[in-house]
Design brief:
0% strand; 426 residues; mainly alpha; TRAP_DctM
């Protein structure tokens, strides 16, 4: 297995994309170990890895998010968040956090959120006198709210890989997302008072109701998704298709900002993003095949028991490993790569599988904003035209807040399990 890991890291270092690095590492393993006869099984494993009806939710939710964004939804959400904050010192920074929280119900992916919110909020904060690195760091920190709120692509994939209820996972991520949002808002307001950040312009009274009315359809999308699934009106896959129809209706009939060109672009971008995700899932299935050959998951579980039999120690160790993994791998690729191992380790932890899913996803998302290689850091640095090292320093207090929320998710079951218990499925 050492050979596989070294070859995988080597391919990544020389710039080969994650999906192809996974496939080439698997091929290298078979060649060196003289097991080329197993190569005939690779196409079957790849097809089996993506032959899951629930995976259809991914392209549909990506498309729904693209359509809502093309319909100028980001600007509507930002203005609505500005109305909620009012004239509070540091209010524009608070708008950034609130906008990220609201937009998370549309995008479902941290990178999409960092790009969409960052393109609007980072220049606005810079014009208002905020330090560029702070504006970029805050946008990156807010971007990890998206994968905790429905329709989270990472939670969907976790549900597919483990057979966990996607509706339960969607509900379980909501409270941790609000806690993280509250933590970031407290940080923003305290920093604003300490550093005398500017007061934002208030929204005129006559504009408030129209703003709320235009933002409401976007805010209702996650409610429709979770409510429909939970009530048994439709399945997760059907919910994703309904989200697309809903996004088209909002963009064409209500906002009237969608046109043929934007719709074609949204479909094209959704197709390319879906192809990338499915290729990663397919290639990672080959890795799972090799892990099974080597019996690695069971060996790792036994080694962890050798370290300690205390569940809290194992949870801390697992969190540390996942945080490191999240530094180097895109979350969806990391999930497919590690879930065969985590499925063996899970029974040792003594926690609910839904709670475990939120913990795993939050771990990997924190990795995306952690220096030096967090992907969202590169996105916001490029948007803000700010050196990465300055953004990395500015985001450290926000990472600390995210780690506190991660500890609460890991050790306070009620944080993730209360909502699923309050809204039992049909």
């Amino acid at each position: 297995m050492t050979l596989y890991l070294l070859s995988f890291l080597g391919f990544m270092v020389i710039g080969i994309p994650v999906a192809f690095s996974l496939g080439l590492s698997s091929l290298t393993y078979l060649i060196v170990n003289d097991q080329l006869h197993l190569l005939i099984g690779f196409p079957q494993k790849m097809i089996a890895g993506i032959d899951n009806f629930v995976l259809l939710t991914i392209p549909f939710f990506i498309l729904a998010g693209n359509l809502m964004n093309s319909a100028d939804l980001t600007r509507q959400i930002v203005r609505f968040a500005q109305m909620l904050v009012g004239r509070v010192r540091g209010g524009l920074a608070a708008v950034n956090v609130l906008a990220s929280m609201m937009f998370s119900g549309v995008s479902g992916a941290a990178t999409a959120e960092a790009s969409a919110i960052g393109s609007v909020m980072i220049p606005a904060m810079q014009r208002d006198g905020y330090k560029p690195e702070y504006a970029a760091a805050l946008t990156a920190a807010g971007s990890i709210l998206g994968p905790l709120v429905p329709p989270s692509l990472a939670l969907i994939l976790y549900g597919v890989l483990t057979g966990t209820s996607i509706a339960d996972l969607f509900l379980a991520g909501i409270v941790p997302a609000f806690v993280l949002c509250a933590g970031l808002l407290i940080h923003v307001l305290l920093k604003a008072r300490r550093e005398n950040h500017p007061l934002p312009a208030s929204v005129p009274a006559e504009e408030r109701w129209p703003l709320a009315a235009r933002a409401l359809p976007a805010l209702l999308l996650p409610v429709i998704i979770v409510g429909g699934i939970r009530s048994g009106v439709f399945t997760p896959t059907e919910a994703a298709a309904i989200a697309v129809v809903y996004a088209l209706g909002v963009g064409l009939l209500l906002y009237r900002t969608l046109n043929a060109s934007k719709i074609v672009t949204s479909f094209y971008e959704a197709a390319t993003m879906t192809a990338g995700v499915m290729l990663i899932v397919a290639m990672a299935s080959m890795t799972s095949f090799i892990l099974g050959i080597e019996n690695i998951p069971r060996e790792i579980a036994q080694q962890m028991l050798g370290i300690s039999s205390q569940p809290w120690v194992l949870i801390l160790l697992l969190n540390l490993v996942l945080l490191i993994l999240g530094l180097f791998l895109e979350p969806l690729a990391a999930l497919v790569l590690v879930m065969p191992i985590l499925n063996e380790v899970f029974p040792l932890l003594g926690i609910d599988r839904v709670q475990f899913g939120v913990m795993v996803v939050l771990n990997l998302m924190i990795g995306m904003i952690t220096p030096p290689v967090g992907l969202c850091l590169f996105i916001v640095s490029a948007i803000g035209k700010t050196p990465l090292e300055k953004v990395a320093v500015a985001i450290l207090p926000m990472i600390a807040i995210a780690l506190i929320v991660l500890a609460l998710v890991a050790f306070v079951p009620s944080l993730t399990l209360t909502l699923p218990s309050l809204f039992p499925g049909s």
